[in-house]
Design goal:
Largest sheet: 14 strands, antiparallel, barrel
Shape: globular
Oligomer: single chain
Distance between the termini: 38 Å
Mean pLDDT: 81
Structural class: mainly beta
Strand content: over 45%
Amino acid sequence: MHKAEHRMKIKTASKYLMVSSIITLIAFSLTSTSLNAQTEPMYSQYMYNMLGVNPAYAGNREALSMNFFQRNQWVGIKGAPKTTSISIDQAIKEGKMGWGMQVYDDRLGVEAATGFNGMLSTRIRVSEKGILSGGLSLGMMNYRINLNDVNNRNNPNDPSFISTDKPSKWNPSVGMGIYYNTDRFYAGLSTPSVLKSRLASYENLVSSIDKSDAFHLFANAGYVFDINEDVKLKPSTMVKMVSGAPIEADINMNIWLKDILGLGGSYRTGDAFVGMVELQATQQIRLGYAYDMPFNPLKYFTKGSHELMLRYELGKFKTKIKSTRYF
């Protein structure tokens, strides 16, 4: 009996050590990383599935959850960003751990990044309703530039733009995060990559490219209020810090009607207004759509951004679990 209790204490201490180590490493990365290019794909509907933002979210929905995201940004502008993402995650070990996988393809002009990540999380119940999770992600990203697509309209014979080269490089990715939630509240802190990687280094007689990825830090939180039996209000926010760029924040407000239809809006500082709609079509299928309209100078050149989300979950839900349904 005493040996079993001792082993249980060791396991619990190990989990706390993992979470505290993640916090320490994130803090260290903040003080030691200085990079110069934004490379992480972002979504307006991240609050519907935060696996792509925080690896500690893996297994949080307590079902086998499969998600598809497609984002077409700045419609009407040639070479505008296009992002596709597919992810899957599940709780294991009776909910004490979680695993996940993500594959994505992100394109912007002549640049493209394709990658995959595997996530593992450990979940600790710290109170009757509160769960603290720590997560790690490991993956690879292929970054490439197609110089054939570079077009110098003013001087098409400029040798700087006459090239058939396609610089390409694989880089490792290590991310980490912490996540806390109850049936009403959640908060998270994460970074998708703590490694300093040179994305591309290319040079010829007349031109050169030297580009590295940027350090990202995400902090988010949200709460669910019961207005009445049929109406739920969910305010949330995310602060995004990218090295070499101004701090950006999303301020979101979503309203749920009868746990079937979700309507929401978001204000992204210095960037755009976002409208969102989500439909719980069945207990296993959820659909989402978001439309971004920029209020910066891009508004004169684009028809906005469109984003689609599809989720399919496998598992028997005998009861409604608020923390997984809204978070």
